[in-house]
Amino acid sequence: MKTRTMISRLLMTLMVATASFSGFAQDSYREALKENLLINNNFDQLKDVFININESLFEKNDNVELLTERYIQEALVEHFVDVVEPIMKEHNVTEADLRTVNALLSTPRGQAFLSHDEEWNAKFQNVLHELTPSFEEDSVAENVEKITVNPGIDAAYAAKFNEMMEASDIKQKMLSFMDGLFPRHSFEGYEDLDEPDEIKEMFNYIKKWVDDNLTTVALNSAYGILTPDDLDFGVKLFSSSPHRKITDLSGMNFLSLMGKTADIMMKYIDWMESQGVQVTEKAKGLKKLMNMDKNWPNEEPIIRD
Fold it and tell me: Could you count the other beta carbons within 10 Å of the beta carbon of residue 151?
């Protein structure tokens, strides 16, 4: 039960992150990538995320929250670049691609779009969390609810929004990502997970919910926030070859995404330690586990009780 609930919440968090339309003293490529990350993301919004996990990672200290703010301002973007740069290069994203998209997003229309997109994405996340089926109960529901379009949305707006959604290909990207959540032998070595068959059923259920409802939920959330001009700009942006390369999710699956998230977490812990913060036993165990994972299969396997 606890495993199913935990994974349900985790999956929704990943879905929301994937649903965002944004893309992902150095060389010029890193500078262009850093500019792209800064244009597309408000890293200050991550403050609450880090603060919420501080208690489990660091011994209680009055300076921890202040150091977290310093980390976000001084180091987080560089650490994101460290993680994202290899992905961009694997997808053949060039410096010219990055600078083309950066220039487009830096225009007044691009800045207006990003501002409205941030507001919309916040509402979209909240609505997704409210509407996506709950898996707190013992059984998974058999029927998927079909959400309807807000009747107050005019047809021209809906048509333009759907054009933008198709240009972004976000629903297909999300469904493809979810297809990779259960590769062959995905549970091998994890026999201690409770009810793996029900977890798979849960993912399939959510996938059908996404297929049936994501576009409608996105449209209902966007109305009144994204303007018709935003939609026109979105179609132009998402149809551009450089932007499609930057936001290419191919090759990303659940394990690789979790690995990238863990990389950022390890960099955060290391940085805080370098500032004199004492880590908890849980953080020490997490670091050891991550180091063993990097050295696999040279390390001895973990023996579960």
Answer: 5
The alpha-helical segments, DSSP class H, found in the chain are: 2-19, 28-40, 47-57, 64-74, 76-90, 95-105, 108-131, 155-168, 170-179, 196-222, 228-239, 241-246, 254-274, 281-295
Cα distances (angstroms) measured from residue 252 to each of 111, 163, 231: 28, 25, 27
Summarised one tens digit per residue, pLDDT across range 233-274 is 999 999 999 999 998 867 666 566 677 788 888 999 999 999
Q: How far apart are CA 237 and CA 222, in angstroms?
A: 17
CA distance 244 to 21: 11
Higher pLDDT pick, 3 / 67: 67
Q: Verify cis geometry, omega within 30 degrees of 0, for the bond prior to 297.
A: yes
Say if CB 175 and CB 211 are below 8 A apart.
yes
Among the listed residues 162, 189, 180, the one whose alpha carbon sits nearest the alpha carbon of residue 255:
180
**Identity of residue 74:** E
Measured distance CA(120)–CA(47) in Å, rounded = 20
pTM for this one?
0.74
